[in-house]
Amino acid sequence: MSELAENLKSRCKALGWSQARLSKEILSVTGDRVSQQTIAGIETGEHLHTRYLPQIARALGVKADDLDPAYSGTTSDQGMSDVRQADIVPPRLTEMERDVPVMGTAAGSEQGSFHFEGGVVDYVRRPPALIAARDAYAIFVTGDSMEPVHPQGELRFVHPGRQPRSGDSVLIQLQEQDDGSVECFIKILKKRAGGQIVTEQLNPAKDLKFDDAKVLYIHKVLTMNELFGV
Questions:
Q1: What residues make up the domain containing 19?
Q2: How far is CA 60 from CA 10, 47, 97, 111, 228, in A?
């Protein structure tokens, strides 16, 4: 096991944090997204990902070289060798309101569904594209049916006011069940025709069809480019 992996596991253990908790804290403290899968890969030594080391260290309350003494502050895979670090001025976190609700979810059926459960469980910072979208919300992906596009544990922002188009990722909410639960799905929209909503699932690869009359909402899941106005 690498020194980085040992130090990371030791620091998380001292704080009582899981990999999922660390992923959430990184997002909260730095505004950057480092998935649970990436953290797991570092802990197992599968990959080093030194490009994420400053964010991880900041969330853990230590310096990057406390986790990895060999860390030099640069990486070869950033693709930014022609840009001086001093020229990069990131937005202050205080300029990004932490008011987007994260809805609690629980695993559902083998079809890759999940259920909204427990109402709002957290709040995360509001990306630029959602400044005026007061009804926007976020979820942590449950299940692996949409990997690798939407890996389990990743945070996703949903914009109810954006009209989804073919090829967009969407969050579909079915009408309330007899027990009061609401079954939901994240899929890729293919088409709406003949009273049906046809979507694509990635893992395993197949089409899923929904009766339009039984769908309560179909909301657009924003891409990273859309979140930051690219």
A1: 3-75
A2: 11, 19, 22, 37, 26
In a domain, 87, yes or no: no
Question: Number of helices and strands (H, E) in the chain?
Answer: 6, 9
Q: What is the CATH number of the domain that holds 210?
A: 2.10.109.10
Q: Which of 186, 216, 215 is nearest to 202 (CA)?
A: 186
Of 28-37, 119-128, 210-219, least confident by mean pLDDT is 28-37
Retrieve residue 82's tokens.
Answer: 């022609």
Give the per-residue pLDDT at 46.
Answer: 67
- Which range has the top average pLDDT, 14-28, 73-87, 175-189? 14-28
CA–CA distances in Å: residue 95 to residues 27, 98, 155:
15, 9, 20
Q: Are residues 177 and 214 in the same domain?
A: yes
Integer CA distances (angstroms), 20 to 5, 40, 149, in order:
16, 9, 18
